[in-house]
Specification:
Blueprint: H1 3-21, H2 26-133, H3 140-149, H4 157-187, H5 191-204, H6 211-224, H7 228-241, H8 248-261, H9 265-278, H10 285-297
Helix pairs in contact: 1-2, 3-4, 4-5, 5-6, 6-7, 7-8, 8-9, 9-10
Length: 298
């Protein structure tokens, strides 16, 4: 209770006491009643104000409660969303990692399957090749080609050693056979077939004992076929290796002739000049001098 209320109540009680002490005075009694009524009206008004204020406070408290509940609910929803979002991001990352792992494992499985398939295929072909090696009528070229086509990663050291020794011998025999075939075709002016045979000879044995002769014959064959760009590398190799001193001026002349047909007169004159200066007694001396003079004249 406030001080104001206490003062008012004291006045009311004081007036009541006065009324008791002076009951015989009608005028005073009437005035006292007016005062009491006045106080009662003020008290009633105050009570109404208090009631209204209390109602307003209750409404505010209710609204604050509702607002607090809504804020709390929003916070819960926001927190749940953040948790869900983080969990979803984590699941996405895990899913991506899982996909990558699956792809890698699938690739490894495919690679392993390929190796297994390759091993089975190689094993079957190796068994067939062994049978062919034991057959005296087998084609040496087919034996070598079949062996070269095999995947050697599935071979043991013993198998490699077994095959390599026999394959090397077959390659040497084949290279000599193709070289001799090439010479025969060359001498019969079948230059295209000669090129094929000489190329096969080099294919089966790059360190062919007849490699210098093969380079020479390939160069001349291409020259006779008018394939001047193809003939030059082989003739230059034959010249560098100098396999036959008696044919040096021939090689120089053929090189000059090839460059002349390619309209490279500078290089052509260079080779013709070498013949003139170094091989004055050679078979190609006068021809080279004639060609050099013709180029100079033009």
């Amino acid at each position: 209770m406030s001080k104001k209320d206490e003062v008012r109540d004291k006045e009311v009680f004081k007036e009541r006491d006065v009324f008791k002490n002076d009951e015989t005075s009608p005028t005073k009694e009437h005035g006292l009643m007016i005062k009491i009524d006045s106080h009662l009206d003020r008290v009633t008004a105050d009570m109404n104000n208090y009631t209204n204020l209390l109602g307003s406070l209750e409404r505010k408290l209710f609204l604050n409660s509702v607002l607090s509940y809504i804020i709390f609910l929003i916070l819960i929803i926001s927190l749940s969303y953040l948790v869900f979002k983080e969990r979803n991001r984590s699941l996405v990352n895990e899913n991506a990692l899982l996909k990558t792992t699956i792809i890698q494992n699938s690739s490894k499985i495919m690679e392993l399957n390929d190796k297994i398939s390759g091993y089975k295929t190689t094993t079957q072909k190796t068994e067939t090749l062994l049978e062919e090696f034991s057959n005296a009528t087998s084609d040496p070229k087919k034996l070598v080609d079949d062996y070269e086509a095999l995947d050697k990663q599935f071979f043991s050291k013993v198998e490699i050693s077994f095959f390599q020794e026999r394959i090397n011998k077959l390659k040497l025999d084949l290279s000599i056979r193709f070289y001799e075939n090439g010479k025969n075709f060359f001498e019969s002016n079948s230059y295209s077939k000669a090129v094929t045979e000489f190329s096969e000879s080099l294919k089966y044995n790059p360190k062919n004992p007849y490699i210098n002769e093969i380079n020479f014959f390939l160069g001349i064959a291409y020259l006779r076929m008018k394939k001047y760009s193809e003939c030059i590398p082989y003739l230059e190799k034959a010249m560098v290796n100098n396999f036959d001193r008696n044919k040096a001026d021939d090689i120089l002349f053929f090189l000059g002739n090839a460059y002349e047909h390619l309209s490279n007169n500078t290089k052509a004159k260079e080779y013709y000049k070498k013949i003139i200066e170094q091989y004055s007694t050679g078979d190609k001396y006068w021809e080279a001098k004639k060609r050099w003079a013709q180029i100079e004249k033009n």
